[in-house]
Amino acid sequence: MKELKILYLYPDILELYGDYGNIQILRYRIEQRGFKATIEPYSIGDTPPNFKNYDLIFAGGGADQEQNILAQDLAQYKSSIQEALDAGVFFLLICGSYQLFGKYYKDAEGNIIKGLEIFDYYTEASNDRKKRCIGNIVIETELNNQKTKIIGFENHGGQTFNITKPFGTVLLGNGNQFNDTQEGFFTKNVIATYLHGPLLSKNPKLADYIIQYCLNRKYDENIILEALNDDFENKCREQLIGRIGEKKGAIGDGS
Ligand code: GLN
């Protein structure tokens, strides 16, 4: 049976606004297609993982304090992470973990948490602790050459600079910085984003995009995923886009 192995980083520390839901959605959508989903958690004190042995690495969000707790632990895996990235393992990073893969995160008091420096972006919070990007957000990205709207919820003080390739264009909400036009960071095998939600429950196409990438890479085949009944998810998307759009001006359908 074909299997996808997921490494779930710091589940006890990085978990905001339902980020764990991403793992549940991945498991559900992998298993519905008749594949096996193996999910292995790693947190401080566990046996060190070899990142290359996984198909997908997931890490959720966490406030400054949580980032402080794990940054040093994460740093010891820099070369293992780099190897996995170079080998094409997929990384899905939300908010706090998105920030930690960059150069650094500077909090509102000016304290610096050193990042992994895997990517060239860096994040700085406003000096005013109360100034945060909070609320529902809709962005548009391209998945397999198809424009797709991605819905989520953002809550971050950090403003991320020096992004070479964003995950999407902001239709509603803030994005990488206050009132930004760009959100997140996107490469062939990395999606780093501020979108909680949980992200994948609100965006089934994105979940399938990631699953398909991982299967095709691992089995070197062009696997076409069987369609699932997403009527409920799509209704929910229409409602959400309608509701968010009502407040800020229409932004079209939920596709
Ligand atoms: N340090 C973060 C910020 O406020 C991370 C927040 C988050 O993960 N939601 O910018």
Protein topology:
Elements: E1 3-9, H1 20-31, E2 36-42, E3 56-59, H2 64-75, H3 78-87, E4 90-94, H4 96-100, E5 104-106, E6 112-114, E7 122-125, E8 133-143, E9 146-156, E10 158-161, E11 168-172, E12 182-183, E13 185-187, E14 190-193, H5 199-202, H6 204-219, H7 231-248
Parallel strand pairs: 1-2, 1-3, 3-4, 4-14, 5-7
Antiparallel strand pairs: 5-6, 7-10, 8-9, 8-11, 11-12, 13-14
Bound molecules: glutamine (GLN).
Glutamine binds at residues 16, 61-64, 67, 95-96, 125, 155-158.
Give structural notes.
With about 260 residues, this protein is an alpha/beta fold. About 30% of the residues lie in helices and about 30% in strands. A 6-stranded mixed β-sheet has the order 2-1-3-4-14-13. A 4-stranded mixed β-sheet has the order 6-5-7-10, covered by helices on one side. A hairpin with a 2-residue loop joins strand 8 and strand 9 (about 145-155). Helix 1 crosses helix 6. Glutamine (GLN) binds next to helix 2 and strand 9.
